[in-house]
Design brief:
This protein is an alpha+beta fold. The chain has 3 helices and 10 strands, in the order βββββααβββββα. Among the domains are: 5-44, no CATH class; 97-169, no CATH class. The radius of gyration is 25 Å and the shape is elongated.
Amino acid sequence: MVPPVLSAPMRGSPESGRLAYPAGRGSAVCTGASPHPRVSSCVAVEGIAMDITVDLPDEIGQWAKESGINLSQTLRAELEAERSRRDTVAGTLADSAEHKVHVAETGLDYVLHGALIAQDYDHEVEAYLGEDERIYVYDAGRQRLHEVDSPQDLGDWLADGLYVDAMRALGHKPILHLGQAR
């Protein structure tokens, strides 16, 4: 994909092939002469930091500043994690198929569209990521279909190893609980 042509006053010379926006807004590469004498036609260089504005409530902004939190670094880390999670989900859903399940409560057969992310043969439980990105658990022994509220709730349905596999298929970090009274 070709980045959009940028038309803004820049520092540098078109002849050098490198220009920079004022106030550190990033860099661009000149792609040719513009019909306008004071504006060069340039495109953004990939990998150059993008300058964006994020609105925060005053209280949170002040707290972050007083706490020395690097907002740029924090936002970047969160966005990278979300992109990784979404890429993982897309990869998981690449194996999407139609899964027929029977629900005793209604007496009906359903076709679940999604990817099988865990199957516990010992407890007759299957976990799915639906194409709608919801998480479903089918209790084959009782012929019940459940929608799971959060990925962590899969730990209530699956053995630890299967839970870990399912969480990874969802792009989430598995957390196992130890030492709890049952």
